[in-house]
Amino acid sequence: MILLYILFAVFAGLLFHGIHRKVIARIQTRPGPPIWQEILHVLKFSFKQTWIPKTASKILFMAIVAAVIAIWSGALYILISGGSLLIIFGVYLLHKITEHGLGLSSGSPYGKFGAIRSVISAASEIPLIASIAIIYLITGSLMISDITAYQASNGILLITAFPVAIAMYIIVLSKVPYSPFGIIEAKEIVSGNKTEHFGVWRAGLEVGFSIKTFVLLATFITLFIGAMPFWMLVLASLILLLTMSFVCAVTPMLSPYDAVTIQIAVIIIVIIYAGYLGVMG
Amino acid sequence: MYELENINIEGQVVTFIPFGDIVGYLTPYTAILFIFAAVFTIIALISKPEKQVDIAFGGDAYYTKNVSVKQMRFQRFMAAACGLATMGGVLSGDVFNFTLFTAMVGITNIGIVASIKNRHILDNAYEYGILAMVGTLPLFAGAAIIVATTGTLSMWILFTPLVTVPLVAKLLLVIGVLAEGMAPVYVAKAEITRAPGAPFILMVHVSSLVLFLRVIEIVISM
Fold it and tell me: Distance between CA atoms of A248 and A250, rounded to whole angstroms?
């Protein structure tokens, strides 16, 4: 059953990426690619000639692709089974390591700069985990099944814990393609940490990233709106993504310094909110 | 059979390993961290380092850096020790053991960086040494305050409502782990771009993040 969910997440995630690109293009008055373009990309990459750069650390170069797919498939399982939210955000941070390893493994300076930017942004994203502590304070549990049950009887967290929702929104936004926080793939460093992964390696990465997009969007919806039928979860995730497409379309790529500064500002908001919750009991 | 009293944070205990009265354990959460650390330790053991490409500024030339066999062996040994310490920290069911493994991660991380014979990188390794040394103060002070106020360091008891762990002890533990796991500090310096040996350098980041995720679980559960 979980295999079916993974296959669906890959398909839906790639389609989401395509829709995301299309919406950004239309807002910027460009025609944009067809929405199934990312699916075609993965198929194309899967059958292109593939090799490993001579300068690469070969095992790390290959293993990191498998690691990306494995950790997000695990996160999807946790989400579907109503497991611990702590695991999903653990996976979110472990993803930072795979991004870093991806860039380091090839020996390319572009990959390496992408990898370094990944860890620099982690330094500001790590404290956003404070959001999880606040959710625990409010709901008394980090199990996703308990959090949805809490919302069913106490109202949705999107309203009752709005600052936390904003912080999580920024977390998810920083991971969608063409994000203003997507400094690891900025064009001045070619494709950043993905630069040297081509052919079937790139196809594998895109599969992993599509699961990641699906999991993060669905997690946000589940956490802040609550449980719903699966088809409605997919639809709500798409609507959430469209809001992010607007942000990505009208916001230029931030410099690494600005990206980290904004994330720190969000952390300060979350900490003030946590202090407010603490004072109000 | 050992069970955590509060299973609302990370789920049921999957397995436990008793060493006398010290009982290590894995939950679904820590099992994922353990497997992740184990996989990257194995990768570090069986991988050869990359040949880092550098651009020679002022022209269109580039060169690659080769890691000598001697350096590779030392980095690999340190990376393996770092991975084992990380797994120990994840498996630990006792705050003092956790702090010991964290301190060991700090030492091995310095070893991974200091093995590169480059003046700038060695300068950095010296600074990390100071940082890790200073970091042991809040780390062990946190554990000391916990044992002084609750009379135990066993997570099996600290995770129950029977004892209340002071907030300051939790903060000191987190600060200690941040100082020992120096990845964000290391990566913010230009010297990382000079350091070859990707599978081993990556262990610095794996250990830092995994132990950070473990300490978050510990302070939320206490």
Answer: 6
Q: B205 to chain A: which residues are within 8 Å by CB?
A: 96-97, 100, 119
- Count CB neighbours of B46 within 10 A: 12
Nearest to B29 among A87, A109, A116 (CB): A87
Residue B198 CB contacts under 8 Å (≥ 6 apart), including other chains: A57, A60, A101, A104, A105, A107, B47, B49, B50, B52
* Tokens, residue B159: 């995770």
What distance in Å separates the CA atoms of residue A13 and residue A211, rounded to the nearest whole number?
A: 6
pLDDT tens readout for residues B58-106: 777 777 777 778 888 888 899 999 999 999 999 988 899 999 999 999 8
Name residue B181's beta-bridge partners: none
- Give the domain ranges of chain B: 15-221
Rounded CA gap, B54 and A196, in Å? 15
Backbone angles phi, psi at A24, to 5 degrees: -60, -45
Tell me the one-letter amino acid at A155: G
Residue B19: strand pairing partners = B22
Contact assessment for residue A241 and residue A233, using Cβ atoms and an 8 Å cutoff: no
| Rounded CA separation B141/B103 (Å) | 13
Buried residues in B55-78 as b, exposed as e (16+ CB within 10 A): eeeeeeeeeebebeeebbebbbbb
Identify whether the C-beta of residue B142 lies closer than 8 Å to the C-beta of residue B169.
yes
Which residue of chain B is at minimal alpha-carbon distance from A105?
A: B198
Give me the residue label for tokens 């390319």.
A108
CA angle B8, B13, B15 (to 5 degrees): 165
The dihedral formed by the CA atoms of B132, B136, B138 and B141, expressed in degrees to the nearest 10: 180
| CA dihedral over A177, A178, A182, A183, signed as positive or negative | positive
**C-beta atoms of B206 and A74 within 8 A:** no
Residue-wise pLDDT tens digits, B78-91 = 999 999 999 999 99
Which candidate from A74, A104, A123 shows the least CB-CB separation from B201? A104
How far is Cα B80 from Cα B203, in angstroms, rounded to an integer? 9
Number of domains in chain A: 1
Interface probe for A, chosen from B50, B175, B191, B205 (most Cβ of A below 10 Å), is: B50
Q: Is A104 on the interface with B (CB under 8 A)?
A: yes
Q: Provide the pLDDT for residue A209.
A: 92
- CA B212, A75, A196: angle at the middle one, nearest 5? 80
CB contact under 8 A, A143 and B8: yes
Closest C-alpha to A153, from A86, A226, A228: A226
